TrEMBL record:
Transmembrane residue ranges: 7-26, 158-181
Pfam families linked: Glyco_transf_20 (PF00982)
Keyword check for Transmembrane helix: yes
Record-given protein name: Trehalose 6-phosphate synthase
GO MF annotations in UniProt: alpha,alpha-trehalose-phosphate synthase (UDP-forming) activity
CDD domains per record: GT20_TPS (cd03788)
Keyword Transferase carried by entry: yes
Source organism: Microvirga flocculans
């Protein structure tokens, strides 16, 4: 409404200025025209009486001249009439102004007109040469011009009213047109913003109704981009903000997660009951709270012995079982498929290839065939689960390198975000893989490909550069391959904050007492812990060797320090894993023999799966935690230890080759290959003053709290939303171009 008044006001002002400028000209034009009319009348009077006056003057008949002049002067427009005999005025009619002077009025040899002032009026004096009886004189006729002035004034008033009327009408019309245009513009912009916010694939505006300029599109786009940047950087990420980001940015979108390992495994126990197991998997512990917050569908391999008994006819089960918030869709694999795809290609091929732990990768063609066909199987399951043609699909890990391309072929409008949870080796190392081109091609079916660190992103781009025809944009960190762009981004994974496993934990002092009692350790025994899957990348043997060195070089710790190594059996079908377990058991025995005695065992090796509650209790009971991975994408055990220590005590000893060391720089950073240096770090941790422990732990807790797993997921989903908006705008522009070309 305000805008209409503003528009109308401006139009009125312009009209007023025009009127003020035009009016004086109009008045003077009417006055001129009236004066000419009077001159004409004077001439008519003169012409009609010239001969008669000339004769009467020649006869010197003063009486008749005066009578004639009085008669003429009785005309309402004529003021006075007289005869100038030289400079003498003769026979002036009654109303002749006393100030009239023949000397001024009657000088010309031809007719002349002049204006003189009489009282308040202008008077037109018309002077006509007239010879009478051989004498030269002038007949003078005086007209009152006040009526001309009056006419000019009236004309000015009428003109003013007419112009004002036209101006008012024009202003009202302009305001109405402006209002209609503004309303349509506003509607189209609102429509564009709402579409942009919803992430809807519809055109941002109805172009045939109201074309939205390229500039406005750009501004909208920039606004969106800057808002997202600020959000991602400053949001206090938690399940609620993740849900809000999802509904603001991706409302109406369908989210499908796919991983090999399922978040909930149903196993039949020896007693015949069905037991629920949460697997020891960093991927699961990170992703599960995120999917719980977002909802959607999680597609994974059904690996439990009672999994088939717990699904519906569509192989779906609502989870978490206690309070379901998303759907787990299980995919069944034969033993043969598992051997080839999971144990073979994924864990004997890609796992050692990507982890530089000096275990030789094995590449069997038969395994690769299974890897390919299982990826196909998952692609089919995902397409069957997708309810829309443009879902957001979060592909997890090295089990599914071919899956992004397979999904892209089936669902071209899907937004595929792939996260590679393990390291990506340098291009030369990756080059030994016989399937390198196929793997790269498969991964580049993704819209966004994420790694834990920038170094892994760089390694991937180097591999692309070395082995496939593509264009790499190093500024944007993106790869153009086969006409499609894939963004390569670092997203450091993390854990939920606050961790669920912390709920219901006893105070730290209690945990210390309970754990020591349970393990048969004296109440004041200093404890170190290591907790992971029994994997050769974790450096379990290396840390035991460091403890051996510690006890050898610092005999004071004999009887005063014990190391609790919890190791969950994993991939036991594979020889390397079985050998590792045997070696670890042998080494623990050996160290215990050499340094133990009188009931003292420096190494407690607990080979079984521990539930999150037990893990957190152990973390809280410990004086230090060792994460000595030989190579690790991130390592969430390090972050879980920090999260468990709300007493701000305890020291983290962390491998420089775990991605977590980039974020947790207040840990004691070690080279796990250097047993001596690691033993020194253990000694330093055991003697570190409490204030120093507190300062380090506080900084690390702040870091994990802020950069939690909701932020990890939030950043990826916001990037996906940004991408969808950009793609939508591109589609819109392309459609506009097509339409323009068709109309041309
Ligand atoms: O490190 C990547 C990762 O997927 C972890 O999340 C997980 O601990 C492991 O690899 C896979 O374990 P599994 O083979 O038991 O699923």
């Amino acid at each position: 409404m305000r805008i209409i008044f503003r528009f109308g006001g401006i139009a009125m002002l312009v009209a007023a200025i025009v009127i003020l400028a035009v009016l004086p000209f109009a008045t003077s034009f009417v006055e001129q025209w009236s004066r000419r009319d009077v001159e004409l009348r004077s001439r008519l009077v003169f012409n009609s009486v010239r001969d008669q006056v000339s004769g009467l003057l020649a006869r010197n008949d003063a009486q008749k001249v005066s009578a004639l002049f009085e008669r003429i002067a009785s005309d309402e427009r004529v003021l006075a009439i007289g005869y100038c005999d030289g400079q003498e005025l003769r026979f002036p009619s009654r109303n002749m102004p006393p100030s009239f002077s023949c000397a001024e009025a009657a000088r010309s040899d031809s007719e002349s007109f002049s204006i003189v002032r009489n009282q308040d009026h202008n008077v037109l004096v018309s002077s006509f040469p007239l010879n009478a009886g051989g004498r030269r004189g002038h007949l003078v006729v005086l007209h009152d011009l006040s009526y001309a002035e009056q006419r000019g004034g009236e004309a000015r008033n009428y003109l003013f009213l007419a112009l004002a009327g036209v101006a008012f009408g024009a202003a009202a019309l302009a305001a109405m047109i402006a209002a209609i245009i503004m309303r349509r513009w506003l509607a189209s912009i609102r429509q564009a913003v709402e579409h942009a916010r919803s992430g809807n694939a519809q055109p941002a505006v109805e172009e045939n109704i109201m074309p939205l300029g390229q500039e406005i599109r750009d501004v909208l786009h920039e606004l969106e981009a800057s808002r997202r940047t600020i959000d991602a950087a400053h949001t206090d990420w938690n399940p609620a903000t993740l849900r809000a980001a999802l509904s603001n940015e991706l409302s109406g979108s369908e989210v499908i997660v796919v991983s090999n390992r399922e978040p909930y495994i149903h196993n039949r126990t020896e007693s015949g009951e069905i037991a629920l197991q949460i697997p020891a998997s960093g991927l699961v512990s990170a992703l599960e709270p995120v999917v719980r917050a977002c909802g959607g569908t999680w597609v994974a391999h059904g690996s439990g012995t009672a999994d088939r008994e717990t699904v519906d006819v569509n192989d779906r089960v609502p989870v978490p079982p206690s309070h379901p918030s998303y759907t787990l869709r299980r995919v069944w694999l034969t033993e043969e498929e598992q051997d080839g795809y999971y144990y073979g290609a994924a864990n004997e091929g890609l796992w050692p290839l990507c982890h530089i732990a000096f275990v030789r990768p094995v590449f069997r063609e038969a395994d690769w065939q299974f890897y390919r066909s299982v990826n196909e199987k998952f692609a089919q399951a995902i397409v069957a689960e997708a309810k829309r043609e443009d879902p957001i699909i979060l592909v997890q890990d090295y089990h599914f390198a071919l899956l992004p391309r397979m999904i892209r072929d089936r669902l071209p409008r899907a937004t595929i975000v792939t996260f590679w949870h393990i390291p990506w080796p340098n291009a030369e190392t990756f080059g030994i893989c016989p399937w390198r081109e196929e793997i790269i091609d498969g991964l580049l079916g993704s819209s966004i490909l994420g790694f834990h660190t920038q170094a892994h992103c760089n390694n991937f781009m180097d591999a692309v550069d070395s082995y496939v025809e593509s264009r790499i944009d190093r500024e944007k960190d993106s790869v153009f391959f086969g006409g499609e762009e894939t963004l390569i981004r670092p997203y450091p994974i993390s854990i939920e904050w606050p961790p669920t496993a912390l709920e219901g934990q006893k105070p730290v002092e209690e945990c210390r007492r309970i754990v020591r009692e349970r393990l048969g350790l004296s109440p004041d025994m200093r404890i170190g812990v290591g907790i992971e899957r029994f994997d050769y990348t974790k450096g379990i043997l290396d840390r035991m060797q460091a403890i051996d060195v510690l006890l050898t070089e610092n005999p004071d710790w004999h009887g005063n320090f014990a190391f609790v190594q919890v190791a969950a059996p994993t991939r036991s079908k594979l020889q390397n894993y079985r050998i590792l377990q045997e070696e670890a058991e042998a080494l623990a025995r050996d160290i215990n023999q050499r340094h133990g005695g009188d009931g003292y065992e420096p190494i407690k090796l607990l080979i079984r799966h521990h539930e999150p509650d037990e893990v957190f209790e152990l973390f809280r009971a410990a004086d230090l935690c060792i994460v000595s991975s030989l190579h690790d994408g991130m390592n969430l055990v390090a972050k879980e230890f920090v999260a468990a220590r709300d007493d701000e005590q305890g020291v983290l000893i962390l491998s420089a080759f775990a991605g977590a060391s980039r974020e947790l720089s207040e840990a004691l950073i070690v080279n796990p290959y250097n047993a001596h240096a690691m033993s020194e770090a253990i000694n330093r941790a055991l003697t570190m003053p409490q204030p120093e422990q507190r300062e380090r732990m506080r900084l690390m807790r702040d870091q994990v709290k802020e950069r939690n797993v909701y932020r990890w997921a939030g950043q990826m989903l916001l990037a996906a939303s940004r991408l969808r908006k950009q793609q939508r705008i591109r589609r819109l522009i392309a459609r506009g171009r097509k339409r323009a070309a068709a109309n041309a």
